[in-house]
Amino acid sequence: MRPLALLLLILPLACLAAGHELLQLFVTAPYLELHTGPGRGFPVTQVVARGDSVDVLFRRTDWFKVRTERGVEGWASERDLGNTTLADGSPFIFEHGDRNGFRSHRWEGGILAGDYAGATLVEGFLARSLTDNLKVELQVGQFLGDLSNGYVADLGLNHVFMPEWRFSPFVTLGTGLEHTEPKATLVVPLNRTYQTAYAGIGARFYLTRRLFMRAEYRNHTVFTKSDSNEVKPEWKVGFAFFY
Amino acid sequence: MESRIRVLLLAAVATLTSACASLHWPFHRHGQPASAAAGQTADEAADASAAAADAAAPPTVIEPQVERRKIKVPKIRSHNIELGAYFGELSIESYTAAPLTGLKFDYHITEDFFFEASAGRATAGKTSYETLGGNVQLLTDAERRFTYYNLSLGYNFLPGEVFLGRNLAMTSGFYLLGGMGSTKFEGDQKFTVNFGAGFQVLPTDWLAIHIEAQDLVFKSDFLGTNRLRNNLAANLGASVFF
What we know:
The complex is a heterodimer. By secondary structure, chain A is mostly beta strands. In chain A, a hairpin with a 2-residue loop joins strand 4 and strand 5 (63-68). Residues 14-18 of chain A have low confidence and may be disordered. The longest helix of chain A has 15 residues, at 2-16. In chain A, the strands form 3 sheets. Chain A has an 8-stranded antiparallel beta barrel with strand order 8-9-10-11-12-13-14-15. In chain A, strands 6-5-4-1-7 form a 5-stranded antiparallel β-sheet, with no helix packed on it. Chain A contains 2 helices and 15 strands. In chain A, 8% of the residues lie in helices and 58% in strands. By secondary structure, chain B is α+β, with helices and mostly antiparallel strands. Chain B has 2 domains: 2-56, no CATH class; 81-241, Porin. Chain B has 4 helices and 8 strands, in the order αααβββαβββββ. Chain B has helices at residues 2-22, 34-39, 42-56, 128-132, and strands spanning 81-91, 97-108, 113-123, 145-164, 168-185, 188-202, 207-220, 227-241. In chain B, strand 2 and strand 3 (113-123) form a beta hairpin. Chain B starts with a helix and ends with a strand. At the A-B interface, helix 1, strand 4, strand 5, strand 8 and strand 9 of A face strand 1, strand 2, strand 3, strand 4 and strand 5 of B.
């Protein structure tokens, strides 16, 4: 019942999205194709002639929902809208996902899976670029092992050496928390939370549009309450996007 | 006598008239014959004066003091985020099938790929051992709750349209999902791999109805041997694009 209530709550929010100033674009190519849906596989059912204009309603990934002067709506690809101009005659330029975007972007996020000191690790991450090379990143994950389960959260800096390369290596350094819940079958099942510090190396590989792969190895030092600190190796690989 | 006076007067008038013509009266235009000014329209006169000015001075470039109109480019809204809920049935291996409810969050990166975070819950029934054994109870009520989350990568394929009657066409498509996450069940957390496929129909641009089947696989030794257990979920859901 609760999800249904939530759905009813968010439905009106989507309706609020209507009613704001729209961007008007003028077609300079011989014609502009309009698809029935936001994808290259959807059929073309309308075309807009050169010189006519369209209003851009909204965007979904690389596709733009537009309305023609005659009130017909359809989806135009970002590539086709490259052949349009604004009302003052300047070309319409849209920042889209490509190698330039891979080099220089504001945010990235993704999912990673790997191994955390023998336990299986599932992790999500979010990073904010300070420069093309330097990022601040937050990773939150859960590890599931034979002897214990737990959570890790890391906050640190990530330095990408050659952000313009398709395959770009990086180093990372930071601090975090590790919460461990030993399995109940062990003798003293005590939950514990310790601070950690880590250093790591990794690489990013650009796949397509806004998508890239990421793999890394980290060495965690866990500041335990016992006499010696624990060192936990971690490796992980996953998919990420930027925008 | 009279004719002599008349001739004298006429001569005086003629002299005065010629004298008047040679004088520069303040209401006359300077340098312009009175006859010419009388015969021209105002425009022609202006042209003539401009031509005279051109001839007199070298041409000067006029700098227009007009501000160029700046066009404010409205921001294009992006609707790449999808939030939804689903209801279905989860067939938990070694237990009976149980009703499933869940929430999902999607972020569409390209027309082909999207990320999905999903979480769901079902409450398992009894194992056959418990059913046959009479008063045996292997799990507490809390341990019987099957709660999972997963992070997946999705791929859209076979885009198309479905037609309802003569006048209504809705975009549709299939998608594949694969990912990993965790399941809390039988008093333990287990690493879980999920994979599946779905079909979705979009009645409007902001609403999607989807039907989906997934397998949630984890390894567990709770029921004797350590083995992979497959839990099949089938669900029907709705989601909204933001």
